[in-house]
């Protein structure tokens, strides 16, 4: 740290220089990210609520009410009237909370000590962090030929140590939706906690279903679903860090509660202590601003862009890994190794990401990627081919 105060202009210049090293969404060149530029109104509100602390909700009663409203609104699109939950930093923290709730619940009511969680091979790496922190063993269910969780495999992996089963609504690598209704039934019949990770699909599947897209049910309308992760900072256009964890019953929060002696409330169930209410307020603002109609229109555009890219890829001769279900396409060059193909694309100035299972280039059709960017991409792909 400097001894003396530095002039603001000097600091700004240094920060701007460093910020310039970042890629920006507006270029439309970031193809592999699930994040995008937040809506300007959400950013404005974010700044306004920056100093609020939801870690001490007795001092910030109004902001706490806003968090409750956000959870309720997200609950509405996830088919639950009275959800319990929190606005958290993202999908990772939401998944961590879900698994912590499941573990504590199983410990308290079933006496399970060395617990296991069943997750699909396609699960986000946040579950590895959760298992590590919570001392749980991961048991991986196979995928079927369509890269979705194999229901038979889940059945076979259930044991008297299983504390949770996880399925995904919008996988990170391929954007696919697991057969959640079937898994929900199995979890319900076996009295096992079932968590749905809809970090990616939570802000799109409900609207797409309402518009008539043929997508499966994945939410609290299924009896077995105990909790859902949903990320406003992906297609919800809220500023990072905004995640959501919703529980069906209050007891899942209760089993995580620890005493919080010096605060205005007696217990705390969140992992984070001091936490800004900015994400809650900004998420509330952007959800109100768009409404179901606004989000539907946004998501429809993303799906149209996905269709555009898919048709053009096929026209030129690229191989699509699977039929896209959401705004994500994974594809390969028919006779070029994926990493070499990725390097070629990087050479053209595209920021791509490579999926591992199966190995393929993945493009997440987020809001910053416009049709004109896709046309440029298709031209470059023609040249590479
Ligand atoms: C993005 C994502 C996560 C992780 O969310 P973060 O906000 O990056 O912590 C978890 N699960 C799925 C399915 C995701 O797509």
List the helices and strands and how they pair.
Layout (H helix, E strand, L loop, with lengths): L7 H12 L20 H9 L12 H17 L6 E5 L2 H20 L5 E5 L5 H9 L2 E5 L9 H7 L4 E7 L11 H10 L3 E6 L6 H6 L14 E6 L12 E5 L3 H4 L3 E2 L7 E2 L9 H39 L2 E2 L7 E5 L5 H10 L5 E4 L2 E6 L6 H14 L1
Parallel strand pairs: 2-3, 2-4, 4-5, 5-6
Antiparallel strand pairs: 1-7, 6-7, 8-9, 10-11, 11-13, 12-13
Helix pairs in contact: 2-10, 3-10, 4-5, 10-12
The chain binds pyridoxal-5'-phosphate.
Mind explaining what this structure looks like?
InterPro entries: GrpII_AminoAcid_Decarb, MfnA, PyrdxlP-dep_de-COase, PyrdxlP-dep_Trfase, PyrdxlP-dep_Trfase_major, PyrdxlP-dep_Trfase_small, Pyridoxal-P_BS. Keywords: Decarboxylase, Lyase, Pyridoxal phosphate. It is an enzyme of class 4 (lyase). Belongs to the group II decarboxylase family. Sphingosine-1-phosphate lyase subfamily. Belongs to the group II decarboxylase family. MfnA subfamily. Pathway: Cofactor biosynthesis; coenzyme A biosynthesis; Cofactor biosynthesis; methanofuran biosynthesis. The protein has 385 residues and is an alpha/beta fold. It folds into two domains: 8-38 and 292-384, Aspartate Aminotransferase, domain 1 (Alpha-Beta Complex); 41-287, Aspartate Aminotransferase, domain 2. Helix content is 41%, strand content 16%. It has twelve helices and 13 strands. It has helices spanning 8-19, 40-48, 61-77, 91-110, 126-134, 151-157, 180-189, 205-210, 251-254, 278-316, 338-347, 371-384, and strands spanning 84-88, 116-120, 137-141, 162-168, 193-198, 225-230, 243-247, 258-259, 267-268, 319-320, 328-332, 353-356, 359-364. It has a seven-stranded mixed sheet, sandwiched between helices. Strands 10-11-13-12 form a four-stranded antiparallel sheet, covered by helices on one side. Strand 8 and strand 9 form a beta hairpin. Helix 3 (61-77) packs parallel to helix 10 and helix 10 crosses helix 12. The radius of gyration is 22 Å and the shape is globular. The termini are far apart. 47% of the residues are buried. Residues 34, 90-92, 95, 124, 126, 168, 170, 172, 197, 199-200, 231, 243 line the site of pyridoxal-5'-phosphate.
């Amino acid at each position: 740290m400097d001894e003396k105060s530095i002039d603001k202009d000097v600091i700004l210049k240094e920060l701007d220089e460093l910020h310039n090293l970042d890629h920006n969404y507006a270029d439309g060149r970031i193809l592999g990210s699930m994040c995008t530029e937040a809506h300007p109104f959400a950013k404005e509100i974010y700044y306004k609520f920056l100093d609020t602390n939801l870690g001490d909700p007795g001092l910030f009663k109004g902001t706490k009410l806003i968090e409750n409203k956000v959870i309720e609104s997200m609950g509405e699109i996830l088919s639950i009237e009275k959800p319990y939950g929190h606005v958290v930093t993202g999908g990772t923290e939401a998944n961590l909370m879900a698994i912590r709730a499941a573990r504590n619940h199983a410990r308290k009511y079933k006496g399970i000590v060395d617990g296991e969680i069943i997750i699909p091979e396609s699960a986000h790496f946040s579950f590895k962090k959760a298992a590590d922190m919570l001392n749980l063993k991961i048991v991986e269910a196979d995928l079927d030929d369509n890269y979705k969780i194999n229901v038979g495999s889940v059945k076979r992996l259930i044991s008297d140590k299983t504390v949770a089963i996880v399925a995904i609504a919008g996988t990170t690598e391929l954007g696919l939706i697991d057969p959640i209704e079937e898994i929900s039934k199995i979890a319900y019949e076996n009295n096992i906690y079932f968590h749905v990770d809809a970090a990616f699909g939570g802000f799109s599947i409900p609207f797409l279903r309402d518009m008539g897209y043929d997508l499966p049910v994945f939410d609290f309308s299924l009896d077995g679903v105990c909790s859902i992760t949903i990320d406003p900072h992906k297609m919800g256009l809220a500023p990072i860090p905004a995640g959501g964890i919703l529980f069906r019953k209050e007891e899942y929060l209760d089993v995580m509660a620890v005493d919080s002696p010096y605060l205005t409330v007696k217990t705390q169930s969140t992992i984070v202590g001091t936490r800004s209410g900015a994400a809650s307020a900004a998420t509330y603002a952007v959800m109100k601003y768009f409404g179901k109609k606004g989000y539907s229109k946004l998501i429809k555009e993303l799906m149209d862009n996905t269709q555009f890219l898919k048709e053009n890829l096929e026209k030129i001769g690229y191989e699509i890994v699977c039929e896209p279900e959401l705004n994500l396409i994974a594809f390969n060059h028919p006779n070029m190794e994926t990493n070499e193909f990725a390097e070629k694309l990087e050479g053209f100035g595209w920021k791509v990401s490579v999926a591992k299972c199966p190995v393929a280039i993945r493009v997440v059709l987020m809001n910053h990627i416009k049709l004109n960017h896709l046309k440029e991409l298709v031209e470059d792909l023609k040249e590479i081919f």
